[in-house]
Amino acid sequence: MSRLIVVSNRVAPVDETKPTSGGLAVAVLAALKRSGGIWFGWSGDVSEVPGEVVHKVRSGRLTYATFDLSTRDHEEYYNGFANSTLWPLFHYRLDLANFSRRNYAGYRRVNAYFARKLVDLIEPDDLIWVHDYHLFPMAEELRRAGVANRIGFFLHTPLPPLELLLALPEHQELMRSFFAYDLVGFQTEADRRSLLDYAIQEAGGEMAGDTVFRALGRTASAEVHPIGVDTDNIERAAASAAAARYGARMRTSLGGRRLIVGVDRLDYSKGLPERFAAFGHLLGAYPANRNRVSLMQIATPTRAGVPEYEEIRRALETLAGHINGEFADFDWVPIRYLNKSFARRTLFGLLRTAQVGLITPLRDGMNLVAMEYVASQPPTDPGVLVLSRFAGAAHSVPGAVIVNPYDAEGVAEAIQLSLDMPREERVERWQAGMEALRRNDVSRWREIFVSRLAEAPFA
Ligand code: GDG
Q: Residue 246: is its pLDDT beyond 90?
């Protein structure tokens, strides 16, 4: 069997007791733990003298191969082009995207650097699987270095429509780097469509089969392979004694009141101000909820080096303050806003105690928390997932109450409907969701992608 080499910007900490609060790292770790392989990428450390050395650590069947980045690389490649240009653009936020040639040059430089380091590890039969928007040019760089292995790519974020992609000054170079892969995987059909529209309408390519396209002299397959979670493990962890202790503490603190929960990285794509506003609307329009229901929002800090993240943090504090100021009572705080991270077990215990999981991103590739909420529920008395139609998960988790996150009144209505939902309907919806999550869990995602990649070339 071929070895699998996974390449991603960040590699999860080898010490699994440290929280990993990023969807990609959570998913790749779950996908690789059992199958084994090499996980290659940035260590997460920045040093003035960037690591010429690749550190290798073995943990079970998985080998971590990591290296440091220099301060300049971190600024231009990671904070710069990846997180200040591509992230907002790919989440349809052209208004927040910064365009800088210097950052783009840094992005190319770091991709070339990743590729140079990786080449030494590659054996002829290895399958190489590159992840996410940080590393589009990897295949091109590896091909240039003579690597003939099969190389696949999975995009965890959305890919926006052609007209938005064209706003990127370097769209031609960046998008053609997709074409050097054998297989490109997306979360949803809309994302796949964006690549094919680009390949055909902008790059003059053509389809050569259901999924296979030809553009600029290269052939690749563009496919939808939605990611999943480690369903069984989450189910077990949420039902564990440790999780139950956190659940019990939570219930005591609620004093018989009901709980709505949201867990997200603190990011403008997650629709947090809109979510707070919808909750405020719930309290205003349905007064029976006052002193009866709380919203607990865990917003895990990320990407502190990007100014937009400081701004969203301030905006949320103000908004939570306003709503709490208007509705709080001496024994009740409407919004519990937590700007910190928790251990996974704690998180699942908290998700399990909430009657409503409120996951309302303005745009999200998939959203694993939506799936984690469903997998954490008690089977005989599950809560209801209220989910944005703009999360990839809306196509993968049946049984959710689907909302438009921009419509505060509609979201408030959906929350009320969920709070009032009879147990029978809740169980039915939950079972539909769980069935899908068990069928398409993260191991299955890995198996399908890797077996498709092994079938390449598709020409
Ligand atoms: C990207 C795409 C796509 C969060 N806070 C804590 C914590 N988390 C964990 C969650 C979940 C993960 O982080 C977040 O994953 P999401 O999918 O919700 O969001 P992104 O980080 O934006 O992920 C996304 C994903 O990649 C996978 O393809 O779904 O669309 O944007 O697992 O539980 N974990 C711990 N403490 C926290 O405080 N331990």
A: yes
Place of tokens 């292995």: 149
Contact 399, 428 (CB under 8 A): yes
Instruction: Give the three-state DSSP class for 459.
Output: coil
Residue 17's pLDDT is: 64
Token pair listed for 98: 């910064």
Catalytic residues, by residue number, are: 156, 364
Residue 64: band (very low, low, confident or very high) from pLDDT cuts 50, 70, 90: very high
- Ligand 1 atom nearest 26 alpha carbon: 32
- Mean pLDDT of the region 218-232: 96
Centre of ligand 1 from the C-alpha of residue 37, in Å: 22
Average pLDDT over residues 440-455: 95
Q: Is the pLDDT of residue 52 over 70?
A: no
Starting at the edge strand found earlier in the chain, the sheet holding 335-338 runs 335-338, 293-300, 258-265, 356-359, 384-388, 401-403
Expressed in angstroms and rounded, the spacing between residue 264 Cα and the centre of ligand 1 is 7
Q: Do residues 70 and 48 make contact, with C-beta atoms less than 8 angstroms apart?
A: yes
For ligand 1, residues with CB inside 6 Å are 19, 21-24, 26-27, 156-157, 227, 263, 265, 298, 300, 341-344, 347, 364-369, 372
Among the ranges given (128-142, 299-313, 438-452), the one the predictor scored with the smallest mean pLDDT: 299-313
Q: Which residues of 60-80 are buried (b: 16+ CB within 10 A; e: fewer)?
A: eebbbbbbbbbebbbbbbbbb
- pTM given for the model: 0.96
On whether the CB atoms of residues 365 and 393 are closer than 8 A, the answer is no
Judged against a pLDDT cut of 70, whether residue 51 lies above it is answered with no
For ligand 1, mutation pick of 227, 350, 360, 368 (most atoms within 8 Å of CB) = 368
CA distance 58 to 62: 6
What per-residue confidence (pLDDT) applies to 258?
Answer: 98
- Using the mean position of ligand 1's atoms as its centre, give its distance from the Cα of residue 69 in Å: 23
Q: Which of 89, 233, 367, 395 to mutate to test the pocket of ligand 1 (most atoms within 8 A of CB)?
A: 367
How many A from CA of 359 to the centre of ligand 1? Answer: 12
